[in-house]
Design goal:
It is built from 8 helices and 25 strands. By secondary structure, it is α+β, with helices and mostly antiparallel strands. It has 3 domains: about 110 residues, no CATH class; about 140 residues, Jelly Rolls; about 170 residues, Sandwich (Jelly Rolls), CATH 2.60.120.230. The strands form 5 sheets. Strands 1, 2, 5, 10, 11, 14, 15, 18, 21, 22 and 25 form an 11-stranded mixed sheet that branches. Strands 4, 6, 7, 8, 9 and 12 form a 6-stranded antiparallel sheet that branches. Strands 17-23-19-20 form a 4-stranded antiparallel sheet, with no helix packed on it.
């Protein structure tokens, strides 16, 4: 069976599933020019364009039409756009959420069921807003970064074992600044070979004449878009500092974009957008940081074991001795991990709230799930974060390179990891009470307005 026949078969299968017309729209009116082109240009072309990481181009109707049944299948199953975050569980109001609205999914499904028509030729779908392939993700909203720090170049062979590149680079920052946004970006062909990059920041201690670790600055893993800091907090870049680059590379690449070729002068760049210099004094009484929270149950001293053709689960717990706000959640694992969740347990009441669930996690698309600050979880002192992750070492896992292998905890791509990156705003009792009161007041105003 050739590719065209397979795509036709996929289309027939979708019809058999009974995926019918979009809600509130007559299926006969849904066309590419009138409806679907806008959705694809806004959500798909960023990757599916000439030189992009998508395996085919979607920049015109003629390019989209042959793939319409496959697009329908991937969109209806929520495999595309590639943003794995469960609907209907926990917090749904996220910043930088790639998921399509149900109405958009229904529109695409109905369009394909109706034969994928072009529509009126006098209607032209709005063009996608695209930067250069190597432009910064936050550039349309924030402009170019205020500071770009590049790692030192290194050559990566076409094949072989995992590699790590660890070294220091001065920041040139002469006074403390608060960070608005950050993006770590492998340059050019390095996108498929850079497994992760964890830049930390050290600050110079004039008393000892030595650099000391100040904090984790940010984190990058394959597919991650970047980090946005909420207003009213400070993710700090200290003065007289340097970046400690910890870059993990997999020769040949991982996932669908793997080139299997050598990469010369591989460089990873860190772009930073700062708040204005006076921001900290006027706006930011609270510190925010990003940390790796380890899942110790079942993963002590590298003992995580996933049996051949089997499954495993890890869970970890963390509480704070002060109130906090959870700003983002990003689970991390490797090729056998396939799901994760974040819960909060309140000892005083015995209640457990589920905050986030990712049931179709993939190592080739990491996302920092950034909660809207208005509804980000507020955690009183003593409440417990419960982090769970699941692993599938069977042939049913499409990312699994070999289901017959025992898999242990470790840093290599073929090993597994069990932790989550979580951004936390550290509060005091006064700040916590103030945020709780503000939310209660807004909720009461909203309820009053709905009763008018």
């Amino acid at each position: 069976m050739n590719l065209v026949q397979k795509i036709a078969l996929l289309g027939s299968a979708m019809l058999a599933l009974g995926l019918t017309s979009a809600q509130a729209q007559d299926r006969d009116e849904i066309t590419y020019n009138s409806h679907v082109g806008k959705i694809i240009n806004e959500n798909c072309v960023v990757c599916h364009r000439e030189g992009g990481i998508g395996p085919m181009q979607f920049e015109s109707y003629d390019q989209v039409r042959p793939w319409a049944p496959l697009i329908q299948l991937k969109v209806a199953s929520r495999e595309m756009p590639p943003y794995a975050y469960d609907h209907g569980i926990g917090i749904q109001d996220l910043k930088g959420d790639w998921r399509l609205a149900q109405e958009e999914i229904d529109t695409i499904v109905s369009w394909v069921n109706n034969g994928s028509p072009l529509g009126p030729v006098d209607i032209i779908p709005p063009a996608p807003v695209l930067g250069d392939l190597d432009s910064w993700n936050f550039e349309p909203e924030l402009g170019e970064p205020d500071l770009i720090i590049a790692s030192t170049p290194i050559d990566i062979p076409a094949g072989g074992n995992d590699m790590w590149h660890k070294h220091y680079v001065d920041t040139g920052v002469t006074q403390k600044r608060c960070i608005k946004a950050m993006q770590v970006k492998p340059r050019g062909d390095a996108r498929a070979v850079v497994h992760h990059s964890n830049p930390s920041v050290d600050t110079f201690n004039a008393d000892t004449g030595e650099y000391e670790r100040f904090s984790q600055l940010t984190e990058y893993a394959m597919g991650k878009w970047g980090e946005l800091m909420p207003e009213g907090v400070c993710r700090e870049m200290p003065a007289d500092s340097r970046i400690y680059w910890d870059i993990h590379m997999f020769p040949g690449g991982v996932g669908a974009t793997a080139q299997g070729e050598a990469v010369k002068n591989n460089v990873v760049e860190l772009g930073i957008w700062f708040h204005e210099e006076e921001y900290e004094v006027a706006e930011s009484p609270y510190r925010q940081d990003l940390r790796l929270y380890q899942l110790r149950d079942g993963y002590e001293n590298g003992s995580l074991i996933v049996p051949p053709n089997g499954y495993a689960m890890t869970q970890g717990f963390h509480s704070f001795d002060h109130p906090v706000r959870i700003d983002s959640f990003q689970p991390h694992g490797h090729l056998r991990m396939n799901a994760a969740s974040l819960e909060i347990f309140y000892p005083e009441t015995g209640r457990t709230d589920q905050i986030s669930q990712i049931s179709k996690w993939s190592a080739t698309w990491h996302h920092s799930h950034i909660y809207n600050p208005e509804i980000a979880p507020l955690i009183p002192t003593g409440a417990v974060l419960v982090i769970k992750q699941w692993y599938d070492n069977t042939a049913d896992n499409p990312n699994n390179p070999d289901p017959d292998q025992w898999v242990v905890g470790g840093s290599r791509t073929g090993d597994e990891m069990s932790h989550a990156w979580i951004a936390v705003t550290h509060l005091d009792d006064e700040g916590f009470d103030s945020l709780v009161a503000d939310r209660k007041e807004k909720e009461e105003r909203s309820l009053a307005g709905s009763n008018d």
